[in-house]
Amino acid sequence: xxxxxxxxxxxxxxxxxxxxxxxxxxxxxxxxxxxxxxxxxxxxxxxxxxxxxxxxxxxxxxxxxxxxxxxxxxxxxxxxxxxxxxxxxxxxxxxxxxxxxxxxxxxxxxxxxxxxxxxxxxxxxxxxxxxxxxxxxxxxxxxxxxxxxxxxxxxxxxxxxxxxxxxxxxxxxxxxxxxxxxxxxxxxxxxxxxxxxxxxxxxxxxxxxxxxxxxxxxxxxxxxxxxxxxxxxxxxxxxxxxxxxxxxxxxxxxxxxxxxxxxxxxxxxxxxxxxxxxxxxxxxxxxxxxxxxxxxxxxxxxxxxxxxxxxxxxxxxxxxxxxxxxxxxxxxxxxxxxxxxxxxxxxxxxxxxxxxxxxxxxxxxxxxxxxxxxxxxxxxxxxxxxxxxxxxxxxxxx
Length: 398
Description:
By secondary structure, the chain is α/β, with parallel strands linked by helices.
């Protein structure tokens, strides 16, 4: 079996690592695997196809910034790519993120309709069925259900500084993305699957395959973190993000810090240096770390992992914390609560700061209600990345 995956990046970022993880499992099972990507360099994959070049990316960015035409640039790059697909002749084509300034969706889907090959499309966000945005939960927009216009997220990724082309984009995507005979959509969360069913992509079969994590890396890990930061007698509230913004809930940590007792401390991982400089004294800021062992040690050391995200598809930070034996508190937002049970944490209503404070205090005095072994076993049974990505192999074979 020969499988071609298509994604904006290869081996970097969450979607890029998912693609290379699937690639490695395919090769281990004796299949032929290729990844086509549009930006950066390929990591952890030898069989790759680069779509376009930096100049193509820059032109596509300009087209997006001025005319709000993400997905409609890169014409020649995509035509050249189609020739490479035809030469490769894969048995299955697996789509990931098609946005990212590297691909022309109309040219690609005209080929897919013509070629009539089995297609799997993993939606990591909502961009495929909106006229512009990749997420709409933060602003509570539902225009995508009937037809986008006057987009309230115009300046957000993939941002347009001038024109709002969301209405035309919506109708173009609807025409382009529908009508493929053998396409299955994969969602990492039940929440996103429900949203897709209400969109124009609802004509396709939709399956849920949760994201998985590397349980050999994310596991209970002892270390010197408490000693290093002089936190031996502190109750640690941890937050982790690749980028901290209002949408990720950074302001809730700032508000929470105002009411911490002397024996409580907040640790935030993933801050910029500028963000660190502005923190109150009872928040310890750590810039983004690529040292997974260090990150697992921080998860393990924390008493509770707090994820006050205001929009998310299925955050893997929740899974990482559970795998390291630390309970999670999160808002009822998107797919964030889906991995939370009575054994793994608590879910509270979105943006409810008072409930957030109360839940943390209750957990602090009843910390023994959570068992490290039970948390770990939950991660092992449900979120092992090899099990999750083998589910994709099963779909390929079907």
